[in-house]
TrEMBL record:
It comes from Mycolicibacterium austroafricanum (Mycobacterium austroafricanum). It comes from the Bacteria. Belongs to the universal stress protein A family. Pfam families: Usp. PANTHER family: STRESS RESPONSE PROTEIN NHAX, UNIVERSAL STRESS PROTEIN UP12. This is Universal stress protein. InterPro entries: Rossmann-like_a/b/a_fold, Universal_stress_UspA, UspA. Gene3D superfamilies: HUPs (3.40.50.620). Residues 10-144, 155-291 form the UspA domain.
């Protein structure tokens, strides 16, 4: 079977599911915005049964090429005609997640549908998308096919000012800049949940001081991003609440949400933070999980 292109660019793991078609459509537009090549990859898993009939093996090969050709048609329908040469297809053989994880080592981003072809994957987040957001070596975009957000809708990013949120910020600002839309930047300085003081106009002086300090620190933190992306309109939201709830709230009117792979106090890079997990599993719009190396 084919080997992946040396200039990997943006990679889409494709199958015959509706969410895969949505992933190809989204990736074709994003690759065009970034002026990067697009590679459509279908991975044929190993056949574990003994004495596989030759006809079945031939069918699997033919079906794999049908899937990539269908994906190629979708990609070309959603990209400019002059970009046809920058869209390639590959049919690979091996464990699906491990093969895509290996490709991610040289990819700009890997894109997958939120669910796959099997009945179980249509109920739960697909095993391929789950594996990639936990193990990929580059940012992972998980695409849902339930909604088609407006191209004028904002991009949303969660930022906790930790080093791990820097990549999420960079991706979000770049996406908002290329799309020419507002960027909603949400910072939860405390994730204890909303505190119910006796009155909205009353809180202990120490709490108010802490709140003011965090808002000023976040405004200062955003300065460097404003300088790098002067054309991007930023709408900062600073809350003392669980960030996943507030990000999902903002996602209702957004076209894309970007989150870090793990946040404050996360252990290893193989772990996916609780906020990222909630967003990937719950959001109905495209989600980019900012993974790296």
């Amino acid at each position: 079977m084919a080997t992946p292109s040396t200039e990997t660019g943006i990679v889409v793991g494709v199958d015959a599911s509706a969410s895969s078609a949505a992933a190809v459509e989204w990736a074709a537009r994003d690759a065009e915005l970034r002026d990067r090549p697009l590679q459509l990859v279908h991975v044929v898993p190993p056949i574990t049964m003994p004495d596989v009939p030759v006809d079945y093996a031939r069918y699997a090969e033919d079906r794999a090429h049908e899937i990539t050709q269908d994906a190629l048609k979708v990609a070309r329908e959603n990209a400019a005609p002059d970009r046809a040469s920058q869209v390639t297809t590959s049919v690979l053989s091996g464990p699906i997640v491990s093969t895509l994880v290996e490709i991610s080592e040289t990819a700009d981003m890997i894109v997958t549908g939120c669910v796959g072809e099997s009945a179980v994957e249509r109920v739960l987040l697909g095993s391929v998308s789950t594996g990639l957001v936990h193990r990929a070596h580059c940012p992972v975009a998980v695409i849902h096919n339930e909604t088609s957000p407006s191209p004028q809708a904002p991009v949303v990013v969660g930022m906790d000012m930790s080093p791990t949120s820097e990549l999420a910020a960079a991706i979000a600002f770049d996406e908002a800049s290329r799309r020419g839309v507002e960027l909603v930047v949400l910072h939860a300085w405390s994730d204890m949940g909303p505190l119910n003081f006796a009155s909205v106009n009353w809180a202990p002086i120490e709490w108010r001081n802490l709140k003011d300090r965090e808002e000023k620190a976040f405004a200062h933190y955003l300065t460097k991003w404003r300088d790098r992306y002067p054309s991007v309109t930023i709408r900062p939201i600073v809350v003392a609440d669980r960030p996943a709830n507030r990000l999902l709230e903002q996602a209702e009117n957004a076209q894309l949400i970007v989150v870090g792979s793990h946040g404050r106090g996360a252990a290893g890079g193989a772990l996916l933070g609780s906020v990222s997990t909630a967003i990937v599993h719950t959001a109905q719009i495209p989600v980019i999980v900012a993974r790296q190396g």
